[in-house]
């Protein structure tokens, strides 16, 4: 068996099962991060495994064809050594891959939480700015007059602290992974207060401020 053929057989045998598993998990995370419906779950847990299984069979058949075709050109010792190394690396790579996946999933979820909190804080600040513009234009400054507060935000909902004032608002999370954020602008002094509920949650700093 030529060195090039050995390399293809060797690398394919190691990568094919775990590459499909890795693609399946990453694709599933991406789908679930975009869609939160039963259809997305069906795609993640049924369609991707089927595609992964077909990929494994295709690569495996290619390996077998190469193995059978080049069998007569290789000694039994070389083939045995190749097989032993193949399985040894499988045993090593599989737990390492699981560890990497276990580490990456929480990190991915945390990054999404930070994006959600950043977006809602940006919405609160924009709402107060919009309120200041309304006041400068001699328009009413009720909470409902500000469009930024009524926009749709992922994982949060902006609520009124005072229906008659758009200088203050509170963003309430829709799950327990995030915390609430509040903004209060004093139109007379020009000072703004930014507070949050839990400094251990994404976007909330020490001292419960943001």
Decide which structural class fits the backbone.
alpha+beta
Tell me the strand order in the biggest sheet.
Answer: 1-2-3-4
Shape: elongated
Distance between the termini: 64 Å
Q: H/E series, N to C?
A: HHHHEEEE
Can you count the beta strands? 4
User: Number of helix segments?
Assistant: 4
Q: How much helicity do the residues have?
A: 55-70%
In terms of DSSP E residues, the strand content is 5-15%
Average pLDDT confidence is 78
Q: Biggest β-sheet: count, sense, barrel?
A: 4 strands, antiparallel
Supply Rg: 28 Å
Spans where pLDDT lies below 50 across 5 or more residues: none
Describe this structure as you would to a colleague.
By secondary structure, the chain is α+β, with helices and mostly antiparallel strands. α1 packs antiparallel against α2 and α1 (3-34) packs parallel to α3 (76-136). It contains 4 helices and 4 strands, in the order ααααββββ. Helices cover 61% and strands 10% of the residues. It starts with a helix and ends in a 14-residue tail after the last strand. The longest helix has 61 residues, at 76-136. The mean pLDDT is 78.
